[in-house]
Design brief:
By secondary structure, this protein is mainly beta. It has one domain: Porin, CATH 2.40.160.40. It has helices spanning about 5-15, 30-35; strands at about 20-30, 45-55, 55-70, 70-85, 90-100, 105-115, 120-135, 140-150, 155-170, 175-185, 185-190, 205-215, 220-234. Strands 1, 2, 3, 4, 5, 6, 7, 8, 9, 10, 11, 12 and 13 form a 13-stranded antiparallel sheet that branches. The longest helix is centred in the N-terminal third of the chain and has 11 residues, at about 5-15.
Length: about 230
């Protein structure tokens, strides 16, 4: 659950000056119900996202926390900075990724290309990054990232998400070696306050997220893990 509105607000910040946005998401994860190999996967995840633009670019972060009946079982966060002092749709990008449960620190740097429609209902971004994974057998790697946000039907619905592909030498739970990882998390939201007779201050959205991955973490092969979700935007 990440990067889902980052590029939309990067582009808005270029046109409208200072912009700040944040949301909190609650996801009921169906992974345990679909895969025996995920029998210990937590059922509930929360995500907190924050974006703030300024005259030098923008800052974005998100924090994921997974919960069991004993409390928080794992945590992961990313923080990134976009730097832009020019009018071209390309910005410099620096980023840190890290978390609990044997997740190595990762430091990324590179460039971001962004595009939007005139009304910002369609936003796309592409990142080309160098990725240093601390304590990995082969720490010097690359990452390609794509993001998108589509608002339609007078902003009643939002389809957004990201796709990451990177090189990382790692092993799955059975000891098989892998050199590349792919993960995508498209989300679909129904924005309740955009419907007639719903208070505009009710910033609640309901929807779903689909985690699509290949050789991610200690898994071997392709996994499809959906969630049922709610989001409150501030």
């Amino acid at each position: 659950m990440k990067k889902l509105f980052l590029f939309a607000f990067i582009l808005l910040s270029v046109c409208a000056g200072k912009v700040m946005a944040q949301n909190i998401q609650l996801h009921y994860d169906l992974g345990r119900a679909l895969y025996k190999s995920l029998d210990e996967r937590p059922w509930v995840t929360t995500t907190v996202e924050m974006f703030k633009a300024d005259k030098w670019g923008s800052t974005y972060f998100f924090v994921d926390m997974d919960y069991t009946d004993k409390g928080v079982s794992s945590a992961y966060w990313e923080i990134s900075r976009e730097l832009k002092f020019w009018k071209a749709p390309v910005s410099a990008h620096v980023e840190y990724n890290g978390g609990l449960n044997y997740i190595n620190n990762a430091f990324l740097g590179g460039a971001t290309y962004s595009w939007n429609s005139n009304d910002f209902s369609k936003v796309f971004g592409v990142q080309v990054l160098y990725k240093y994974i601390q304590k990995n057998e082969k720490p010097h790697n690359f990452q390609l990232t794509g993001t998108w946000t589509l608002n339609f039907c007078k902003e009643k619905f939002t389809f957004s998400g990201f796709a990451d592909f990177w090189r990382e030498k790692h092993f799955d739970a059975d000891g098989n070696n892998h050199d590349f990882v792919f993960i995508s998390e498209p989300q679909f939201w129904v924005n309740l306050n955009k419907f007639k007779h719903v208070n505009k201050d009710l910033n609640l959205s309901v929807g779903t997220e689909w985690e699509l991955s290949t050789d991610f973490a200690d898994r071997n092969g392709f996994y499809f893990i959906p969630t049922l979700a709610m989001k409150w935007s501030f």
